[in-house]
Design a protein that fits this description.
Blueprint (H helix, E strand, L loop, with lengths): L7 H8 L16 H4 L18 H16 L3 H13 L4 H10 L2 H7 L6 H9 L3 E3 L2 E2 L12 E4 L7 H9 L9 E4 L4 E4 L14 H8 L2
Antiparallel strand pairs: 1-2, 1-3, 3-5, 4-5
Helix pairs in contact: 3-9, 4-5, 5-9, 6-7
Length: 210
């Protein structure tokens, strides 16, 4: 499976905004974006003075969304085409599809400190959806489905540590979380106002509609 293997903080610097790709580190003094908030590369510090075209703005917004959710171009385009076929606003449909990814659901429920870590936990088979173990990060969780930590995985020191932190975490209102059972239910799909992602989805729609 293809994935980005370069420096993670470089992606935040390229987009000019924190993408919170490294969990708790992004909130500390060690955050690469906080120390070097300019674009990467030899001429990075001077790029802020350049005038960005309309196409450039649209492209950067698409790249930012891809990097936040950890999706490569081909799969992102597939999500867009699926969102376009659905009823409603295409941009909002796209974000809901991305939010429904199993790795994102695990992250949102507080079982991982970042989407990257959530993806790794899912791929290692630590989670069940319903009564079946699912190790596919891109699995789209449906409303009403229960996502839980597998019984054997509850002994994992990492997941035990995450469970202890759940009580102080803010969980989105479209989840019903059971700390005792280490499980959560996607009760409904979120509205655009409820999704706290700084993405201007209309720019993505304009880019793909060219």
């Amino acid at each position: 499976m293809a994935k980005y293997t370069g420096p993670v903080c470089r992606q935040c610097r390229r987009e000019g905004v924190k993408l919170f790709l490294k969990g708790e580190r992004c909130y500390s003094d060690k955050c690469g974006f906080s120390r070097r908030g300019y674009a990467p590369g030899q001429h990075g510090q001077g790029q802020g003075r350049k005038k960005v075209s309309e196409y450039g703005l649209q492209l950067r917004e698409k790249q930012k969304a891809r990097r936040i959710y950890g999706v490569l171009e081909r799969q992102f385009r597939s999500y867009f085409e699926k969102a376009e076929r659905q009823k409603g606003i295409t941009g909002e449909n796209l974000l809901v599809l991305l939010e429904r990814r199993l790795d994102n659901v695990v992250y949102r429920m507080g079982f991982a400190s970042s989407r990257t870590q959530a993806r790794q936990l899912v791929m290692h088979g630590h989670f069940e959806v319903g009564s079946h173990r699912v190790d596919i990060p891109s699995y789209l969780v449906r409303a009403g489905e229960v996502v839980r930590v597998c019984e054997k995985s509850k002994e994992s020191p990492l997941l035990q540590g995450m469970a202890q932190e759940l009580a102080r975490k803010t969980i989105p209102i479209w989840f019903d979380l059971s700390v005792k059972d280490l499980s959560g239910t996607l009760t409904r799909y979120p509205s655009r106002a409820e999704m706290d992602v700084s993405i201007q989805e209309h720019l993505i729609v304009e880019l793909y509609s060219r």
